[in-house]
Amino acid sequence: MAKPKLSFICQNCGSVTARWQGKCESCGEWNTIVEENSAGGIGGGPQGASRRRGRPSALLPLSGEMEEAPRIISKIDELDRALGGGIVRGSAILIGGDPGIGKSTLLMQAAAALSRNGHSVVYVSGEEAVAQVRLRAQRLKAADTDVQLMAETNVEDILATLAEARRPDLVIIDSIQTLWSDMADSAPGTVTQVRAGVQAMVRFAKASGAAVILVGHVTKEGQIAGPRVVEHMVDAVLYFEGEGGHHYRILRTVKNRFGPTDEIGVFEMGDLGLREVQNPSELFLGERNEKAPGAAVFAGMEGTRPVLVEIQALVAPSALGTPRRAVLGWDQPRLAMVLAVLEAHCGVRLGQHDVYLNVAGGFRISEPAADLAVAAALVSSLSGAPLPSDCVYFGEISLSGSVRPVAHAAQRLKEAEKLGFRQAVLPSAPADMPRSRDMSGFEVEALPDLVARVAVGGGATDA
Ligand code: TYD
Ligand code: MG
């Protein structure tokens, strides 16, 4: 008998090594490498299968008949918007998020809404027993709908059940980490199993025309647990996010083969489940102290995702010989640079002041684009003049004091506008950048322009 081929697969990034190691060389994580039987995994094929000769497939021209991707609409606007206008039939969608953030709640509400609109929905729960799911459905007032429930984790059993039933419009799998397949030898929850399970469900979606929504857990780094390769296999990837202690949740698209990826859906978690938030700005601005000097909203990007965060600065006369510089959530050297530019080019004297800088919500910013927001917050705190509450800031500051353009300006502005902001202070923008009617922009070419404006309490428009 042939010796089974073993390989060692990192459970974090999916990279394969020939031997066990304590640390994955590709993603740098410790203790993530697990021995798996690769012969039974994806690409291994059924054991003992003979080599099959390929079958020629038709070659087609680019032009020809096509149809608009047919979509099923949940009428939950925030969800439909995040998906680019509804769920495309035959597509596979991955929804990631921290445990307890409300993924199961969102999908149960979506299932109920779709069912009320006449679509057939199957909800496969691998994490909770039928009774638990029923309890939640009752709480969400979804129990009276025709959503069909299955508590199952074996992929082959799920597919067999779906083949028996009337073809559903939507299948929800909660979650991919509980899926396991007879075809893969590894333990449930390993990369090989998750990949095999997702691949089987994606194939089902394409073959049957039913849409499949897969729930995925997120690791502490904020990535969908298991290999990134799962994200490549599906048509759309959404993240369901929220901040600790807050009730708002954001459904954010990071990949969508059938729509834009800069849309977000905003919800609020309450006693009766998730409520759509039509005007998110109220929610976000409500938690800020608009009158306080020293707070600036930075329109940032997290990878491909736009995020708005508040940067808070406190500048106070120092009693120490060497003033304090404390930073949370940003680069210390970067702060030193902005302070130096403010001193050298703008005449802002901070040498006798303690400076504290904090990024609200425990965020960490790594972008130089935050320079301008930091400078605005610092000057505002020093001068005691609050910044306009509906204004966002972004731009990189160079040592000469000039403000340089940053990437994704249009995306930042779009996110800011979506969240209710109406002014932006930004670098001189390229002429082809799309401008929105509702947003007014103040272009700063050099830092002294900003300082002069902040000191009189102005934002993008004249106060
Ligand atoms: P859940 O959907 O189970 O999260 P996930 O599937 O992402 O792990 O949501 C669980 C949390 O949501 C839990 O902390 C309780 C809260 N919740 C409410 O506040 N109201 C509700 O109506 C429901 C159903 C849940
Ligand atoms: Mg859940």
From TrEMBL:
Query: From what superkingdom does this record's organism come?
Result: Bacteria
Report the residue ranges where the short sequence motif RadA KNRFG motif is annotated in this entry: 255-259
Q: Which residues form the RecA family profile domain?
A: 68-218
The family database entries (Gene3D superfamilies) matched by this protein are listed as: 3.30.230.10, P-loop containing nucleotide triphosphate hydrolases
What InterPro entries does its record include?
Answer: AAA+_ATPase (IPR003593), DNA_repair_RadA (IPR004504), P-loop_NTPase (IPR027417), RecA_ATP-bd (IPR020588), Ribosomal_Su5_D2-typ_SF (IPR020568), Ribsml_uS5_D2-typ_fold_subgr (IPR014721), Rubredoxin_2 (IPR041166)
Query: Family assignment?
Result: Belongs to the RecA family. RadA subfamily.
- NCBIfam families (alphabetical): sms
- Name this polypeptide is given: DNA repair protein RadA
Query: What lineage, starting at the top, does this entry show?
Result: Bacteria, Pseudomonadati, Pseudomonadota, Alphaproteobacteria, Hyphomicrobiales
Q: Which gene encodes it?
A: radA
